[in-house]
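Assess this:
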Amino acid sequence: MLRVLQITDTHLYADKDRQYYDVNTDVTLQNILDQVLQVEDDASLVLMTGDLVHDESPLAYQRFHHYLSRLERPVYCLPGNHDDVTLMNRLLSGNGVSCERFVLHDHWQFILLDSTVTGEVGGHLAAEELDKLAVCLQTHPDHYAVVCLHHPPIASGCAWLDQGLILDNPGELFNVLDAHANVRCVLWGHIHQESDVLRNNVRLLSSPSTMLQFKPDSAIFAIDDTAPGYRWLNLHADGKLETGVVRLIDY
């Protein structure tokens, strides 16, 4: 059994004391990592699904890299709409942290897609990303697949998010996924809330942010009082998947 963690939407600033709606994102991330170090000894790898920093600053990426290297296990990062892909690729490398977008591990493959569009909050999967996904799935049909991206490929239930802030070409993504029986899961961040939907025997999962959460099913922007958290996945050799969310204990 392979245990994997998804941590997402950390939103660090160059100024480590700066707050986002009264939340110090550095502190909440470090608290999450402290909890992970205490209770997740058996986790083999970590997937970071975007909005790693909020202000596209080198200082924030350098501090993010330092924090994540504490985990002493592989950490794979993909970009969100607040990230700078060039800076990520340059600064998030070494000490177990990388921007590698394809990983084979035991009976599973992890495919990390870039759904960002320069200057836009919403997402789109370019043809080269979809082609890369198809090639990975075709090349390794004997490995079950976890597909990761930042933007949701399905509606979140929040009108203010669903009107232009999610993935704008989900049909093209699902056309690729539906053609391959080895896909087991799609993971994303962006919406700062958890959800779990089954589609064609594939789990579609969103996960809480390490900082503040967006109120579910809200027509307008609203902040929830739910604690920060992360997602865990137990991946078995026969393709079985178990998953859940862990919230920060002291919040």
Remarks:
- The chain has a mean pLDDT of 97.
- The first helix runs from residue 25 to 39.
